Amino acid sequence: MTTTTKPAAPVAAAPARRLGPAALALRQGRLEITQFLRSRESVVFTLGFPIIMILIFASIFNGELGGGVKFTQYFVTGMIASGLMTVSFQNLGIWIPIERDRGVLKRYRGTPMPKWVWFAGKVIMVVAVGVLEIALLLAVSVALFDLRLPSASGWLTFGWVSVLGVTACTLCGIAISSLARTARSGSAVVTPVALVLQFISGVFFVFTELPSWMQQVAALFPLKWMCQGLRSVFLPESFGAREAAGGFELGRVALVLALWCVIGLVLCLTTFRWTTRRDG
Question: N or C: more exposed end of the chain, with fewer CB within 10 A?
């Protein structure tokens, strides 16, 4: 007698678990960080350039500015602000046109993934790399040039100046990426702007020693106010009298940076493109 066995009933596949907003953003952020680290040029330029500049300038200008303040103590504030601008404004302004030209953004727009997730990934990458860059700059400055770290209240000021500055520069970097027609033109559009702002905003030189017209032009942009806010953290309070306005003006620093956050957001919403002009 033969026996027959009934085929096993198919097992229903478990429904895929949908990721929440935070998980989506973190996953996209990890992807952006991985892509950044795989680009040797970006890693060397973004993380290495500010450290090289500190080593060069601090070795050449090893004197004091007065009141027991070394030039290194002044210079590191500008390099931190410049580093934050590099990882946000300059990095995004160069790489977004590359992704747009390669069709990466077009493919993202065609997926079910919410558009805000892509932007969240960029923000997470900027924050992660920015924190790493600040840590490296402070470590080098403390170890080699006896940088004096701020007090607890100084770190609080450091935090909000950095957050407002990075937010403004990130939004402006996303906005300026739309000016580049091709992947190759991104660097040509963004790098000159970044270099000019660094020279006129007190990054490489003492701000009050620059011509007055340069100071007035620099005051229109966020980098000058980032540098000024960070100087209030790393320099003695009495050094504020040497600022152009006779004080660190932290209230105005917050107001200008917040205003640039609004301007950058408006520009992003009105100018950002997912496709190149030739794609329509």
Answer: N
